[in-house]
Amino acid sequence: MENLILECRGICKSYGRKEVLKDLNLTIESGKIYGLIGRNGAGKTTLLSILTAQNPATGGEVTINGKPVWENEEVLKDLCFSREIVSSTQNGIAAMKVKNYLKAASVYFPYWDQGMADELVKEFGLDIKKPMSKLSKGMLSMVTIVVALASKAPFTILDEPVAGLDVFMRRKFYQLLLEEYSNTGRTFIISTHIIEEASDVLEEVIMLHGGKILLKENTQELIGRTFCVSGLESEVDRAVRNLKTYMPERTGRGKRVTVVLNSGEKIDETCDVTVQPVNLSEVFVAMCNETEAAYEK
Q1: Which helix (H) or strand (E) holds 5?
Q2: How many Cβ atoms are within 10 Å of 274's Cβ, its own excluded?
Q3: Which strands, in side-by-side order, build the sheet including 273-277?
Q4: Per-residue pLDDT tens for 125-172?
């Protein structure tokens, strides 16, 4: 597959006086599975819609290999943004049968794989004769997954793809995603609130906080350098002196902090403290928490 680079430069987005994205820069390289995580209202869906030219930026530019995506059919063919389907009488989707919705998608996406679409419909047990309005939230999510995978778009973006799915179907989705990734090398960006289930699938994680990119890093490397340190407050303070700490929690004489170690930094384990690894959800909560502590002196 062609080596493509999707890039945001100086992206800003405002709705009236509310600034949602603030001078955001981001580079997405081909051949990876990215996870986009952030709190509600962080601007995740706004960013994804701007990446795929479904929403104009207030400022800045999105390009693929240097070519702007906005109103540019030459590069838009390489993008698929599969998001939650809202079926209402206003948007005309409610009365559409599933088969007609998928037919429309097959016309829209030039790399569409009808054979894959048929297999996924069978895998998910979708009734293609049903109107979209009669589908459960989970079934609607399955339709978005069919569209995303069968689109064969080099850059495929899924916004909350597992919403409404039970644990069995969520696992099935990630299995199918990994199979497609292994077979094609396509680039996927997954936005999800169910962080821990996805962490083993995501090669890189992008954290969006306050309209800015908080970090973009290899997922396992990030987890591998983040620790929870607990014990008597005096011992914890000595163990993490000169380190940046997050989410200090005090209980009586005890204290607990999270640290994200940079190159060359170490926790002083000669102190009487307990040092434990954390999962991606805990890293996210720590780094996005508004009570982030200053450097310990």
Answers
A1: strand 5-15
A2: 14
A3: 245-251, 254-260, 226-232, 273-277
A4: 999 999 998 999 999 999 999 999 999 999 999 999 998 899 999 999
Q: Is the C-alpha dihedral spanning 61, 62, 65, 68 positive or negative?
A: negative
Name the phi and psi angles at 283, rounded to 5: -60, -45
Instruction: Provide the token pair at 188.
Output: 């996927």
Interior CA angle at 187 toward 181 and 193, to 5°? 90
C-alpha 35/C-alpha 190 separation (Å) is 5
42: tokens are 């962080």
Residue 168 half-sphere exposure, CB side, CA atoms within 13 Å?
2
Helix, strand, coil percentages for the chain (3-state, nearest 5): 30, 30, 35
Strand pairing of 226-232 and 273-277? antiparallel
Tell me, rounded to whole angstroms, the distance of Cα 215 from its chain centroid: 12
Predicted confidence (pLDDT) per residue in 63-97, tens digit? 999 999 999 999 999 999 998 876 554 467 878 99
Token pair, residue 132, equals 């979209």
- The C-alpha atoms of residue 278 and residue 86 are separated, in whole angstroms, by 36
Nearest-Å Rg of the Cα atoms of the chain is 22
212 bridge partner residues: 209
Partner residues linked to 82 by β-bridges? 158
**Chunked in runs of 10, what are the mean pLDDT values of the chain (297 residues)?**
89 93 95 94 92 95 95 93 71 84 95 97 95 92 96 96 92 96 96 89 94 93 95 96 92 94 93 95 84 36
Q: Is the pTM of this model over 0.85?
A: yes
